[in-house]
Amino acid sequence: MRLLDRYLLRELLTPLAYCLIGIQAFVTFFVLFTDLDKIQAGKLHFWDTIAYSTLSAMSFITVVLPISLLVALLIALTYHARHNEITALRAAGVSLWRLCVPYFLVGFVASAALFALNEIYVPRSTEWATRILNRYVHRPDDSQNQFHGFTNARAHRIWIFNEYRPETAEMSGSIVVNWTLPDGSIRKLYADRAVYTKPGWTFSNVKEFEQASETAPVVPFLQTRVLAMTEFDETPVEIENEIKMGEYESLHSRKLNVPLSVLWEYLQRHPNLPPAGAAQWRTKFDGRLAAPWTCLVVVLIAIPFGVASGRRNLFVGVAGSIFICFTFFVLQQVGLALGTGGYLPAWLAAWLPNLAFGATGLLLIARVR
Q1: Which of 26, 215, 238, 285 is deepest in the core (most CB within 10 A)?
Q2: CA 298 – CA 273 distance, rounded (Å)
Q3: Pick from 167, 174, 236, 225: which is nearest to 199 by CA?
Q4: To which H or E segment does residue 208 belong?
């Protein structure tokens, strides 16, 4: 690595570290004061409170990291421009694109890190925060009053059950499984308990009924205490993913992070979703793909603003970053809303801010003299 690259990286990484720590700390305190009632109700101790706030704030990392990178870039570039360092380098024959190679490298690494965090750590951090919140005060379990559904479109089976324990791959409560046989007849299985035995599921206290067609009467087919259904190939992972998707859909919560693997499996299991549902989940899927690349787009848009800043005050870069972030995230929300509503293709709605700001950044860089 050349001396110039090391110098530019050092001048960027220092404000980036300060911005990342400062903004994330601000978000953590914001979460702390927002959830203060929950923390008091959960009777959390001091270190429990710190851990809960830190883990809960991790769900904002997709916003914090791009903003931190943008502010750090504008600060670093404004500093170089104020001291005529960029002018001197370009006069020495260093092109603007070559000068910005370290910045693009940081943007790419930040995008890869953000993708990994968003897929691996952030979904788990939400679960860990919930466990900490319920560590001392066990809230009443209302799962017995709720029903979960699972549809296996490829096998024409529909599952309905009260409770599922992922640690033992066990269902309990009122379990109902409906499926259609190749001859068009319908089977309905009722049970009190089901355990995944690989292959298939083993049911307890089973009553099975049969219908020759949808309009035919229901007649008893089988009654037994234990029944092994090896042809039921639904796996615990599929069941858990379906429950997570059901929770997201019922709560309409953006804080419940659904990894790409879960979304992909859900879309594969439900190829015939209604238009509204298909638009919602495909936009969500493409949105999670597009979100990490915001860091690279940030580099493209920050370079022309920072390089052309001349001898302006350092805080001009910070003020510019606030305006850019506000415009970007407004466009992002508008795009996602249009995609969810079916007014735009899912991929275009999700990638619209990145495409618009990336193209604008490239155009402005080309016009920098």
Answers
A1: 285
A2: 35
A3: 236
A4: strand 201-211
Contact (CB, 8 A) for 72 and 301 = no
C-alpha R_g of the chain: 27
- C-alpha separations of 227 from 194, 223, 230 in Å: 9, 9, 10
Answer for the pair 335, 350: CB distance below 8 angstroms, yes or no. yes
In this structure, what token pair is assigned to residue 236? 């615990």
pTM (2 d.p.): 0.76
Work out the angle at residue 177's Cα, subtended by the Cα atoms of residues 173 and 182, and round it to the nearest 5 degrees: 170
The neighbouring-strand residues paired with 158 are 151, 178
H or E stretch at 123:
helix 122-133
CA angle 112, 116, 121 (to 5 degrees): 150
Q: How far apart are CA 129 and CA 54, in angstroms?
A: 9
Residue with tokens 């799962």: 143
Per-residue pLDDT of the chain (369 residues; tens, 9 = 90+): 588 888 999 999 999 999 999 999 999 999 999 988 988 888 889 999 999 999 988 888 888 999 999 889 988 888 888 888 888 888 888 888 888 899 999 999 999 999 999 888 888 888 788 889 888 876 554 444 466 888 887 788 899 998 888 888 899 888 999 998 888 899 999 999 999 988 899 999 999 999 988 888 889 989 999 999 998 988 888 888 887 777 666 544 445 577 888 888 888 877 777 888 788 889 989 988 998 999 999 899 888 877 765 555 556 556 666 777 788 888 888 888 899 888 889 999 999 999 998 898 888 888 876
Q: Where do the structural domains in the chain lie, given as residue ranges?
A: 3-136+289-367, 156-233
Distance separating alpha carbons of residues 61 and 63, to the nearest angstrom = 5
The closest of 22, 268, 40 to 137, measured between CA atoms, is 40
